């Protein structure tokens, strides 16, 4: 009985830490793909941002 109440907060903290690391990893993957797209073709990547201001 005492062990389950003691391990519960540790599991919650570990869950938050794992979720944070997973979200950080996904954000890093998305940023890597965006940067690769920008490096491969910088004019196409910047075209939608400049097009509305010209028209």
From TrEMBL:
Which cellular compartments is it found in?
Membrane
Pfam family membership, one: Cortexin
Q: What is its main location?
A: membrane
What is the membrane topology noted in the UniProt record heading this document? Single-pass membrane protein
Look up keyword Membrane and say if it applies: yes
* GO CC terms, sorted: membrane
Keywords attached to this entry: Membrane, Transmembrane, Transmembrane helix
What parts of the sequence cross the membrane? 15-33
Keyword Transmembrane helix attached? yes
Q: Could you identify this protein by its name?
A: Cortexin domain containing 2
């Amino acid at each position: 009985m005492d062990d389950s109440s003691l391990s519960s907060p540790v599991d919650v903290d570990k869950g938050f830490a794992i979720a944070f690391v997973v979200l950080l990893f996904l954000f890093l993957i998305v940023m890597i793909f965006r940067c690769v797209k920008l490096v491969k073709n910088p004019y196409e990547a910047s075209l939608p941002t400049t097009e509305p201001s010209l028209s």
